[in-house]
Amino acid sequence: MKTRVSNRLWRRGCAFMGLVLLMTASGCAGRSEGPVTLRIGVLPILDALPLYVAESAGYFMAADVQVTLVPVASAAERDQLLQAGQLDGVINDLVAVALYDRESPRLVVVRYAMQATPTTPQFRLLAAGASAITAPADLRGVPIGLSQGTVIEYVTERLLQQEGLPPTEIVSLAVPKISDRLALLEAGQLQAVTLPEPLASLAVQQGARVVLDDTRHPEFSCSVFAFNRDVLEAHPQAIRGFLDAIERASALINADKTRWNDVLTAQALVPPSVVGTYTLPDYPGAAVPSREQFEDVVRWLQQKGLLTGEVAYDSVIESGFLP
Predict the structure, then answer these.
(1) Domains of the chain
(2) Which residue, 13, 39, 81, 146, shows the most beta carbons closer than 10 Å to its own?
């Protein structure tokens, strides 16, 4: 008798423990994983300002996404960390994205980071102050200091072609470091260079002359937010939250461009000598580059021999994460 009672009690105890374990497992399964952390590689460039504003204003937290901003000193370091899986997203440009995705679409563009507009340039062709160069036609056959095989060379060639110079009369000189371009231009050892803003404004402050910029042809200049495809597929809601925070930060910057000097200085996004005088550009709203923009970049890379195959727009540009 005692044995039967004991067996019944043992079976009931097992059933109860099984029920407890099942409820515990169900509770764990239904529980949220918590905020996803996105690691973003950040160069000290003006394009990154919305990241710092979104972070300080709490917009990432409000979107239930954690963002770690990883400083990188160069595009080469950024790409190395990206390939090593140590970054989830980056600010990049269409030339670099097409080259990165030449074998397979590993990096996906989800939003503009910066665009040239008819009133705010992103890149400028500058002449030395002591030179006789005053117009695009004066640059025929003149070596232009720039970084070859990059968006700088692409924009330079496309702008000059739009102004009537044939490719055979556009001469580029490889000067990869921006600091070297600035120094050589100021010393008169280079007659012309292409620089991004706000460093172009610094060069003008030091005596350089603007010959041409992309306000004349803004369709050629932009930077973008891009993420690893695996991250997009694994955490789509985190990407949407990230882009929502960027949208809010961009609107906040555009609403009052005078209040960000401390951030610009602390993050070295603007040279100290132009802080307070340089006017911030309009940060773009939620949009992605057009098919025409991207396909023109791919054609240019093919013409330069830097890309042998095709990189399809639909595999690289994705608007579905925009708010």
Answers:
(1) 36-115+221-316 (3.40.190.10), 123-219 (3.40.190.10)
(2) 146
pLDDT tens digits for range 177-205: 999 999 999 999 999 999 999 999 999 99
CA 145 – CA 153 distance, rounded (Å): 9
Sheet holding 209-213, edge to edge: 171-174, 143-146, 192-196, 123-127, 209-213
Task: State yes or no: cis peptide before 198, omega within 30 of 0.
Answer: yes
Entry pTM: 0.88
pLDDT digits (tens, 9 = 90+) for 239-288: 999 999 999 999 999 999 999 999 999 999 999 999 989 999 999 999 99
CB of 281 closer than 8 Å to CB of 122: yes
Cα torsion angle, 179, 183, 184, 186, sign: positive
